[in-house]
Target: Proline racemase family protein
Amino acid sequence: MTSRIHAIDVHAEGEPGRVLIGSHLHVKGATMAERLRHCRETLDPLRRLLLREPRGYPGLCGVLILPPADPVADFGLVVLEQGGFKPMSGSNLICAVTALVETQALPVSEPVTELVVDTAVGLVSVRAEVADGKVTRVTFDNVASFAVALDHVLELPEYGRVPVDIVFGGQFFVQARAADLGIELDAPAAKQITRAGAVLRAAAQQQFPVVHPNNPDIDQVSLTMIHGPSATPGVSGRNAVVLPNGEVDLADPATWTGSLDRSPCGTGTSGRMAALHARGELGVNVPFVHEGILGTTFTGTLRGTTQIGGYQAVLPSISGRGWITGFSQFVLDDSDPFPQGYVLGDLWGQARTAAADLIELEG
Ligand SMILES: O=C(O)[C@H]1NCC[C@@H]1O
Model:
């Protein structure tokens, strides 16, 4: 027997997102938080199948489209990253909206289609600008974002003591200045950036426990942002976000590998804006143009402030563009010896994970 999975591949300002439609029958839960937990508990094989080789690649993310749990919303989403299922992602939300609007899976109106998206960390209002059926820009009102710590000093192997911000922008991030790590935020330094990002994330996970006040399942620093100034006129700052290449074993530095977000990262930009606001360096309604490693930009603005748990929080909106790159029907044949795909150290840098896959297959 074979299983078939339909997907629309999209990129948002360079970052690929595989939009999975029609897989929702497998996901149970009365709220999006319960559905995220259900995905983590039962759907990891699907995530691995679609993101790993031979169907995926290290830089790939995905997004599962679900019916909304809250009836005011148009659809729900759960994000698939190489590091696991996540509650929210800016690039993946832009990919999802671009795919659903351009295929008219939802009622579309021009010049603007307004939608509400349900996530495990809250509702997100979306405005998609549409011209002749093409989505030309997506702006979303992200969930409340906040700084947990500013200039907290982490002890890092290889880099010494480095001040970081721990922030939430839809996921928890550790964010550090490129100058403090002695690296340039340019494409030729990609390997150095991913190494520094992976070390920072491992150190933050070991030294700085986090938990979201409204969702105790969001309890991990998932991503690293390294940031610095931009030389581009009109751009407020530059950044590179590092995603883990798979499940990380904190006790085994061989698994501390990563890939760069190809976009300027919506959740990371929201967290960065929260830190800048907390320092008094970014006001409400001031555009913040954030450039990623490919030179593409997301534009953020703070639409106000709020309180979340004990944290002073900001309400960021993020705007960017997405492009459909393909329509796929993935197949899993019952006799395929790699039902969860595989990783190999040549591309993924994770010798240990690859070995674990091979043992799984033999068992
Ligand atoms: O835009 C974002 O928020 C993200 N891009 C890939 C990793 C993050 O989820």
In short: The CA atoms of residues 40 and 85 lie 6 Å apart.
